[in-house]
Amino acid sequence: MAEKKAYGTVLIKAKAILDYMMSQDTGLTLKEISEGIQAPKSTTLKILTTMGEQNIIWRNDDTKQYFFGTELIGYGQRALADFDISRIALPFLKKLRDKTEETVHLGIEQNNKVVYLQKLESPQSINLKSRIGGKLNLYSSAMGKAILASKTPEELDEYFSKETLKPVTDYTIISISELNKQIAAVKENGYSIDDKENQPEVVCVGAVLQKNGQVYGAFSVSTPDYRLGDHRRDQIIQYVLETKKEIEQAL
């Protein structure tokens, strides 16, 4: 039993390393990784070396930084292919991206977070932090609020009892009563809004994807707020509602 636990511990630490690397925008040194996961440098180095031998990560000898390796590409592509919602929704999301000329995302809920499954880039200039596999708060994102609106009152109470609401930007709503008002509006209108709550100067319009009581995920359109006048906002909302209907019919 002790040996089994030891292997499990190593696997957990390896995942912690990958999770921490995913949370950062650049490569990381051994010192940065060991401090980030709060593990000894010697233990961290052993795991990094093993993952490097398997091409899961690689090390730049000049900068001493570690990066994701080529082996993960195949895993990521297979994981995406295994999600039916990604395959079914993709053609409709491409059409939405082309109509709006804005960035479109697809995500699913996992452990009270939104995980990006797809990101379709805008042809226009926009700097978004999002990346496939990255995670978002449910309470501060359009996709997240759309997913929250699909939950029962009991499920919402459980979520808010466990989640610590922290401001991501100056506009993040951290009042449960105010969020409940927004969630009620999402249920009524069919779409959600993230008004610079997750990234400054970026507004998102989202909707949940569900059929026969099952939630498959959510999607959103992201645009800089300076491109979003009242007419443009209404237009994007209409496109989102149309796309929601098309995807749900295809499920």
From TrEMBL:
Q: Which InterPro entries match?
A: GAF-like_dom_sf, HTH_MetabolicPath_Reg, Tscrpt_reg_IclR_C, Tscrpt_reg_IclR_N, WH-like_DNA-bd_sf, WH_DNA-bd_sf
Read off the PANTHER family from this record: HELIX-TURN-HELIX TRANSCRIPTIONAL REGULATOR, ICLR FAMILY (PTHR30136), HTH-TYPE TRANSCRIPTIONAL REGULATOR RV1719 (PTHR30136:SF35)
The UniProt record lists the HTH iclR-type domain at 8-70
A GO term, aspect molecular function = DNA binding
Q: Is Transcription regulation found in the keyword set?
A: yes
Q: Where is the IclR-ED domain?
A: 71-251
What is the protein name stated in its UniProt record? Answer: IclR family transcriptional regulator
A Gene Ontology biological process annotation?
Answer: negative regulation of DNA-templated transcription
Per the record's keyword annotation, is Protease included, yes or no? no
Natural source organism: Companilactobacillus suantsaicola
* Highest taxon listed in the record's lineage: Bacteria
Keywords carried by this UniProt record = DNA-binding, Transcription, Transcription regulation
